[in-house]
Amino acid sequence: MNRDSSYDGKFYYGVKSTGIVCKPSCKAKNPHEKNIVLFDTFEQAIDAGFRPCKICMKPLNVIQIQRYHSPCGDLILGSFQGKLCLCDWAVEKHRDVVDIRLRKVLKASYEEKTSDVIQETSQQLDEYFDGKRTAFDIPLLFVGTEFQKKVWHRLLEIPYGKTISYGELAKQLDMPKAVRAVANANGANAISIIAPCHRVIGSDHSLTGYGGGLTAKKMLLDLELNLNKTFKE
After folding, report:
1. What is the C-alpha separation between 95 and 101, in angstroms, rounded?
2. With the C-alpha atoms ordered 80, 84, 89, 93, is the resulting torsion angle positive or negative?
3. CATH topology assigned to domain 5-52
4. Distance between CA 84 and CA 119 in Å, rounded?
5. Model pTM greater than 0.90?
6. What is the pLDDT of residue 119?
7. Any idea where the domains of the chain sit in the sequence?
8. Phi, psi of 144 (to 5 degrees)
9. Given this structure, which CATH class describes domain 59-232?
10. For the residues 7-15, what does the mean pLDDT come to?
11. Which of 53, 56, 87, 197 is catalytic?
12. 197 part of the active site
């Protein structure tokens, strides 16, 4: 590789051994040819799970991330420009899909670092799990399609300690025939608990799926239901 900058922007190469994507002119140590994957665009490399090289294409934007240990399992908290953009289960089987979406849309990379928003979110989550908080007051940044964001904003209106079905959620959005699409958007929510997708259940009252697992979903619903009864008493 001769690091010819005239090829920058014409293609990108990913390094399988490190998981990074570079420009042709990158001054990092040349990788072994067997570890190189070529891409026509930067977006293709990001979609394939590669992250930007810090030497040749350090992104202007950064998503700060920190792990939060909850009674239901670990969450990954992420903030971007003063807003919470991520509160996702660490065990979520679609975590890579969420990460790719955030990095691509925000044109940012992850950095393990705290922020004021992450610290405030951690404190409010502590209060939530201690039964001292029933609503969150955190600036949110939903990253997705307009349809997805419409669904996620509607989740914020589901009362604490209450549940609705996917069909009911679709009707509230004036999309009674789009139950499957609404369910898919609900499943793609990257800000769990705060945008309470766990409060959406099956029409037969079954828990259905959940990114953090059905055990976590049941724990969250039980916590809210029991505390809600206490408030009423």
Report:
1. 10
2. negative
3. DNA Methylphosphotriester Repair Domain (3.40.10)
4. 11
5. no
6. 98
7. 5-52, 59-232
8. 175, -165
9. mainly alpha
10. 89
11. 197
12. yes
